[in-house]
Amino acid sequence: MTMHSESLEAWQHEHVFLGEKHERNERRTLLVVVVTAATMILEIVAGTLFGSMALVADGWHMSTHAAALGIALLAYRFARRHAHDDRFTFGTGKFGELAGYSSALMLAMIAVLIGYESVLRMLQPVAINFPEASAIALVGLLVNLASAWLLWDEDHHEHSHEEDDGAPNAHDHNLRSAYLHVVADAFTSVLAITALLFGWAYGWTWMDAGVGIIGALVIGNWSLGLLRTSGAVLVDAIPSAGLAKSIRGRIEVGSDRCADLHLWRLGPGHTAVVLSIVSDEPQPPAFYKGRLAGIRGLSHVTVEVNHCPH
Question: Is the same domain home to 138 and 251?
Answer without folding.
Answer: no
